Every structure is written in C-alpha cells, then in structure tokens.
Amino acid sequence: MIPQRPGTHSASALVPERASVLSRRSFVKSATTVAFVLGFHVPLRNSSEAAGRSSYAPNAFIRIDPQGDVTLIIPQVEMGQGVYTSLSMLLAEELDADWSRVRVEHAPADEKHYANPITGIQVTGGSNSVRAFWKPLREAGASARACFLEAAARSWGVRAEECRTENSTVIHDRTGRKSVYGALVGQASAIEPPRDPPLKEVSAFRLIGRPIKRLDTPEKANGKTKFGIDVLPPGVKFATLAASPVLGGKVVHVDDHRATAIPGVRQIVVLDDLVAVVGDHMWAAQSGLEALDITWDDGPNGEVSSELIWSRLREASLREGAIAKDVGDVARVLGSGGASSSDVISAAFELPLLAHATMEPLNCTVHVTPTFAEAWIGTQVMERVRAAVAKAADLPETQVTIHNHLIGGGFGRRLEPDMAYSAVRIARQVDGPVKVVWTREEDMRHDVYRPAYHDRVWARLEGDRIVGWRHRVSGSSVLARWMPAAFKRGVDPDGVDSGADMPYDIPNLRVEFNREEPPGVVTGFWRGVGPNNNVFAIESFIDELAHKAGRDPIDFRRAHLDKTPRLRAALDLVREKSGWGLALPERCGRGVSAQTSFGSFVATVVECKVEKSGEVKLRRVTTAVDTGIAVNPDTIIAQLQGGHIFGLTAALYGEITLEKGRVQQSNFHDYRMLRIDQIPPIDIHLIKSDASPGGIGEPGTTAAIPALRNAIYAATGVALRRMPIDRKLLAGSERT
Amino acid sequence: MITLIVNGERREVDVPADMPLLWVLRDVLGLTGTKFGCGIAQCGACTVHLDGKPVRSCLLPVGTIGSRAITTIEVIGATPNGAKVQKAWLDREVIQCGYCQSGQIMSATALLDAIPHPDDADIDAAMAGNICRCGTYVRIREAIKQAAAEVQAS
After folding, report:
1. Is B153 on the interface with A (CB under 8 A)?
2. Tell me, which fold does domain A228-299+362-437 have in CATH?
3. 0.90 surpassed by pTM
4. Is A283 in contact with B40 (Cβ distance < 8 A)?
5. Alpha-carbon separation of residue A362 from A229, A405, A698, B25 (angstroms)
6. How many angstroms separate the CA atoms of A25 and A187, rounded?
7. CATH number of A307-353+450-730: 3.90.550.10, 3.30.365.10, 2.40.30.10, 3.30.420.40?
8. Residues in A touching B99 (Cβ below 8 Å)
9. CATH node for B2-75
10. What share of chain B is helix, strand, coil (3-state, %, to 5)?
11. Among A84, A165, A172, B52, which residue's CB has the most CB atoms within a 10 Å radius?
12. Could you report the per-residue pLDDT of A383-392, keeping only the tens digit for each?
C-alpha cells in the first residue's frame, strides 16, 4: 500500500514541463478555431490555482480537434497493466466519445495537475490507478460532454435536455439533427464546464465493463514502441557502469590503460562510487568496462552477509512491536509477551530479499549542459526523477525536461529515481547526450530489494473458532525511507497492510510492526508490497489452524468471514471452479488463499505435484475475484494471470543473498524465472459487482504464494514456513 | 567494414568482428525493436532470425554471420507466419509491458515456420528460452495455437 496524502509533500516548487506548457497554451489560445480543450480540475490539495480557468488552462485530460480525433492525456504511466486503456475508457465513457478516434498522450511531469488523487503525488503504484481516477476522470468526461451538448442545443435553439450524445455526436431526436463534436469545438470552448456533472448509471455504460482492446499493444507487436532504452537522440553516445559492489563502497584506483585501447571507447568516467565507460555503442562501453582494473574500498558494509541480516532480523522479532491494531484483550486470551501457554499455537514465517528483474534493464538517457538537462526514461515517478535530475545536474527544476516512455516492467523498481541520478552524474562529464544502460548483472546487484521479513503469529482455538490472534511483523520499513511522514509511531502502514485489516472475524486481535533495517541493503516496493508478506503469513497459518481444528481449509476460512461476504462468495466460487475436494493423484495437493487486498476480494486455489526429488510441478491455478466494477475485464484477467506467475516465480525460486557485502545473484541463470514449459492452466473467474473498482495489479502475486505453500502442505504434510520452497525438506516426504 | 543483409537490405557497418549482432542492430543501425535483456542468451529478448532460424543476437558475433539473411521484428509482419503471429498476439491480447514480446514473436514465428501445427510439447521446446516477467505465457500458448489454426485455414 502507498498511503494516502501524508501532507508533507509540497507541490509548490513543481512547475509544469516547459515544452508541454507552451504547446498546450498555444493550443488553448487558438482553441476557438483549432480545438476544444477542457479545463478540468483534479480535486487535489494544491488545486487552488485559479489561473487559466477562463482560458482552459493546461490541466486538461481531453483534447478534441475539428477533425474529431479525441486525445486523452493519461496521468498514470503504462507499464503493461493496461492503464492507458482503462483510464481512457473512464474518460471516453462519460464523454460518449467515438472510441475508434481515441488516442492517448502521456501527461508531462507536472504534479500540480496530474498528481494521483490517492497519494497526492505523481506516482503510479500500489494498484490504485483506476481506484484513484475512477471518479475524477469520469467527471472530466461528463463535464466535457455537457459542453458539447449545450453548444449543439444553443446552435439549434433547443434545450440541452432534449439532446443526447453517442459516438462523439450530439443528436436531437425530435428534429433528427446531428452534430459531431469536431464541428462543435469552437462553440464548446466558450462554455464553462459544469463542476459536478451527473455521471452515468452503471446500466448505461457502453465501454466500461466490456473487454476493450489495449491501445498500447499494436506497436509493441511490431517493434515500433520506444521504451526508454530505445531512444537515440542525435549524436548520442553509449555508457555502461560498474557501481561499488558493496553499498557505501568507494573507488580507490582505476587502471584504464587496456580499456582506452579498445576501438570505440571514448571516455572513462570515474566518480567516487562508480566507474562508467562511454563509447560509440554498448559493446565498446561494455568491453571497456570489462578491461578496467578497479580497486574498491568496500567501506562499512564489506562484511555483511545473509547470515548477519537474518540473525539480526530474528533477534529483532523477539522484541515487542509498535501496535498497529489492538482489539479485545489479546494478553488475556494468549498470555502476555507471546510466552505461549500450552494451547496457544504459534509459528514464524519468513520471506527473503527479492530483486525486481524487470525485462528492460535500468537505463536513462541524459543530455546535460550548463543551462539545461533533458532526460529520457520510463519511470513510475516522473516528478521524483525530475527532482533527481535537477539535483545531480545542479540546475533548477525549471531547466529540466523529462520525456517519459512506456516501461518495460516496473513492479516497483521504477518507483525509485536512483538510475536517473547516477546517469546524470555520469552525463555531466560527457559532451552531448549519453545513454546509460545497466547490464543485467549491474541491475540485479544494485536493486532496491523487496525487504526480508520475519513474522511471528500466535493464535488460540476454541473448538473450530479462532478466539485470539497476534501477528508481529519484523522487517525493513520501505515507507520510512520513501515517504517518511507516513511512518508514524513505529508503524509502517504498508508493512501491516492486509495484516492490520485482515478479513477474518477474530474477537481478540493484535498486529505489531517491528522495524529492523538490514545492513548493506536498500529496500523498496516490489509487486504486492506489504500484503505479500502479511497474506503469506496469515494464509499459511490459517491453513495450519484449520488442520489443527480438523476442518476443511475453505470451510474453516468461511466460518470466520461472516462480516466479509464478498470474500466468502469468492471462496465459494473458487471451490466450485477448482474441483476442490475431488480426488487427486499421489503427491498432489490443492491449497487455497483468501485475501482482501488493494480493495479486491480474491480467492485462489493452486494445485501442484511434489516430486520425490522435492521438485514442485504446477498443475492448475484457479482464482475467483470480486474487484468491483471490472472496467476492462480482459485486463483484469491478464493482471491476475501474470500476477500469479510473478508470485509463483518468487515462491519457487526467488531469493537474493549477500556475502562479503555483495549480492551473489547476477542474471537469469542464478535468479531464475518461471518459463512457459512450467506454466499450468490459469483460470480467472470474475464476480459481477456494482461496487467501485478495486486494485488488480498486485493481488494476483500476493494470492499465489500462500496458495502454493498450502498445496504443498496438502500434498506432503510439510508445513513450509519460509519462501522460496526448500526442495530438500520436500524430498521424499509423504503425506501423513 | 562488415557487410550484412538486414531485412533484405545490404548494410555496411564499421564495427569490430566480435561485436554481438544485438548491438549492431540497436546502436549502429537504429533497429531498436530487438531488445537487450540479459546479454547471456538466457532470456530470448534479443531473438532474431538468421536465414529463418531463431538465434540469440546478444551472443552472436557479427563477423560470423556472412551472407546469411538477418530478419528482425521490424519486418517480420511481412512474412505470412509473422503476420499471423502478430495478429494472434493482438487478438488474444497477449502483450503487457511488451519488452520481451519482440523476442517472443520472433521465436513463435520460427516455430510455425518449422512446425505448422505445434503441440504443447513443441511450444514448450520452442518458447522456453523466452522469459516474460509480466507472465503472459498462458496467452502466448493460446495465440500460437490460434496462429497455427489460421496457418491451417489458409
């Protein structure tokens, strides 16, 4: 979870990107003859600016030209989650736009106008794009539509209420008159858009709820899409780098005599914590870098190891944590301090550090001069990148232009601006534009890693009811670094997300957070964020409790879900669709998980086989989801399919380890990914709902990991308490 | 100077003979549809065709190619199977972030060129070298089957 508006983020210094302002202003000036631009107000904290209200100032999401082309300016970045299409659908639905004439433009770095209403900053993450813009973008569309309606009615001398709209056309049925939006742009521009336009009833939706083809995919199928890594500004040079292999280490000495002799090598850039080679192409840069002899001073983290990180985390987990939730009387029911009396059941669960391994390696292309900086990058945080570029270039933010590109995999990695900061520091030493590309090895060894967690959980059963529950999360706080104001009284709201608000009805419940930062590692958001950890611990432990109570895992969960009927319905559907309870071959099992994360209600069943060798084969995945109104149902299915594979990959393989302060994994041979030959059928079932949309980019990931763990438990009786799976523990195991 | 046949055209490039084809395509010829993913032939993002056969361009020294025809994602749609694969990819809405998909489409097209009616095992064998981090594998399989059905129909 990315928390809501912490209130410390001043938007006052943020100035819209210059090029866009100019083009939009000149656009607006001639709007009466050229186009209709809707001045639209996103309801933000800092949206008090009055400038441009009368002149349709640049906070526009919609542009319609006289030829009838509809351009939608999308404030959230596209990284494969389909948001260009789903947000366009929200606008076009209420605008009654001709979908075949819709095109998409990305919003510039401009927090004032394009900040995410949930977080208050210009960020794409936390599975909240549709949730955040569900109302504002529909209002933007409806408001524009009202202007066209009014413009046509006036020109025909009829009342607006007698007219209707469809396919970018205003229609007056009684007289049979029609006017397309394009022909009305001049008159519509003169009409003040209504502030609270009425929105359609769900039953009137023509786009929302239908599987609409993605707007961004045709050019991804023929190689035309320009990701950040594909830009080639005139005269660009190519660079690659080696950063200190140990966090906080420094360059002591560089012997470059072999590197400079390599054809195509143009320049060696030595900074205090990294070395880069600039060349005519990536091959020259890479060959040059390999030919360097770099001596590093490892600094204070040179002895950090995974063993040290885990021992500190496990020790920290013995402390009382900061209270995130406390209901009833946990001390009475469970005993104090976690000291278990005989009928208190307890377990500890662990998740490792993980890399993002986006398919597009880190990169940023930069042109720095004494007076301006220009950067080309795909990022989830445009404004933070702009600030990082300005800082590294020692320029005011007004002199920085950011060109955002489609993203070749985000998963949280591109919520950080570190790559832009490093690229600019290198580019300051280079004459002209330079494209800085990380090798896969550098990308993997300089990630901001998903935190390692150690969770302790205690519970007491009375019959087949859970009467007390205590959950202590120990791990790094990403938010304390990323958005410090959100870290309050020792609790990281993301760290306890889906834990403090867990769905089960338990009368005595305490959830604690225990911050323990790993030495030598920076941690960050990773697809599924805090709920990954909490859903894993809760859903694993619930399965163990069901087993203790002698109940079927789905029945046991259902019995604690009287107050969460939408999740209960998802469990019922997944039971029916997954073949739950039907006989399975030897060493096969089904496991379930249930969660209310990111505003969606998800129940997943994974079916697997555990080979005698301990290897796990996936047989089938079935999910039932109530995510409210399914804006683009096919995208929702795709996100859950992909999210499941992302989670299963982590469960089967994912772990970053350190030795001598160095990350030991480097590429896909030692940080493995699931491949097509390992993927089972994955069936997603959507539950029809009229509730507001939930988030869907991440819950597929969080659902899959405990469901697989529970399937292994069902198949073998081995209760894994740590991911990734330990094949040695599973080898030869038999169901008892 | 090295002479290459790229997408039907003769191209002269002044690069070292040990330079991998990937970087010649991307950084010298500006054909950026072919992607860099791992640099060690583990992910398949850099897949191109050499005389119609799929190869990982990130490890292929450009000096070893000679007169063999190089085909990239930019023109694969001009071949019958390439066009069917691209259509099936869009019909089935396979693509998410899209970064690996140039390589996926090149591998899938080569599969259909070699085996017009692949079964699941054929698909596994041909496609297991291409990693997709977004997890589009289920739809890749469906799309290959659709494209194969169209091959059959035509």
Report:
1. no
2. Aldehyde Oxidoreductase; domain 4 (3.30.365)
3. yes
4. no
5. 8, 13, 22, 20
6. 19
7. 3.30.365.10
8. 227, 358-360, 408-409
9. 3.10.20.30
10. 45, 15, 40
11. A84
12. 999 999 999 9
- Number of A/B CB contacts below 8 angstroms equals 181
What distance in Å separates residue A440's CA from the closest CA in chain B? 5
CATH class of A18-216: alpha beta
- As a whole number of angstroms, the distance between CA A90 and CA A266 comes to 50
Arithmetic mean of pLDDT, A353-374: 98
pLDDT at position A23 over 70: no
Quickly count: other Cβ atoms within 10 Å of residue A175's Cβ.
10
Query: Are the beta carbons of B131 and A675 separated by less than 8 Å?
Result: yes
Count of CB atoms within 10 A of residue A246's CB? 23
Determine the pLDDT at residue A336. Answer: 59
Domain boundaries, chain B: 2-75, 76-153
Choose the weakest-confidence range: A17-31, A544-558, B70-84.
A17-31
Predicted local distance difference test score (pLDDT) of residue A315 = 98
Q: How far is A181 from chain B (nearest CA, A)?
A: 30
CB contact under 8 A, B95 and A220: yes
CATH number of B76-153: 1.10.150.120
Domain boundaries, given as residue ranges, for chain A: 18-216, 228-299+362-437, 307-353+450-730
Confidence category of residue B28, pLDDT binned at 50, 70, 90: very high
Contact A281 B19 (CB under 8 A): yes
Six token digits for residue A675? 């491949």
Dihedral Cα A129, A132, A133, A139, nearest 10 deg: 170
HSE at residue A606, side-chain half, CA atoms within 13 A, is 32
Tell me the pLDDT tens digit for each residue of A643-683. Answer: 999 999 999 999 999 999 999 999 999 999 999 999 999 99
A264 touches chain B (CB under 8 A): yes
Complex confidence, ipTM? 0.98
